[in-house]
Backbone:
């Protein structure tokens, strides 16, 4: 999708991405480090990260189409490269957020036919929590880097 109503689609998708991606990262982080937030947020973190994982490749695809129509500059090339990397960050955040949610949803846990030891559960929880927090922070950093490079490619001479 190159355009929407004659307007390049990339800047339109970017508005959704810069809301959905940081919100997904913050919700994922909050649900991992704050148990009462996890209970209150329920399915919201997986839903928001699903929006983010859908809009990210749409945004990069629309950006690639727009890139063919504008003059290249170093900031634009960096923006495109970082945008491609953002897909991996958001996909990883998606996987970790859904795993965390599923591991703490009693309806899902009750259907598991076997129960690992308490030690395995604790180790898995700590590893999954740490990975989720690291990826959430990394995703937030990437949003800033991608956005900065994109803004510089348009607004800096």
Residues:
């Amino acid at each position: 999708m190159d355009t929407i109503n004659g307007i390049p689609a990339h800047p339109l998708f970017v508005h959704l991405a810069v809301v959905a991606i940081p919100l997904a990262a913050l919700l994922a982080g909050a649900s991992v480090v704050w148990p009462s937030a996890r209970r209150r947020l329920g399915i919201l973190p997986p839903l928001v990260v699903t929006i983010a994982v859908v809009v990210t490749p749409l945004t990069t695809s629309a950006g690639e189409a727009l890139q063919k129509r504008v003059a290249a500059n170093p900031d634009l090339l960096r923006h495109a490269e970082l945008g491609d990397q953002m897909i991996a960050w958001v996909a990883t955040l998606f996987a970790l957020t859904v795993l965390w949610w599923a591991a703490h949803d009693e309806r899902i846990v009750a259907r598991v036919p076997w129960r690992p030891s308490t030690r395995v559960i604790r180790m898995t929880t700590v590893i999954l929590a740490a990975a989720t927090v690291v990826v959430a922070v990394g995703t937030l950093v990437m949003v800033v880097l991608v956005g900065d490079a994109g803004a510089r490619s348009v607004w800096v001479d």
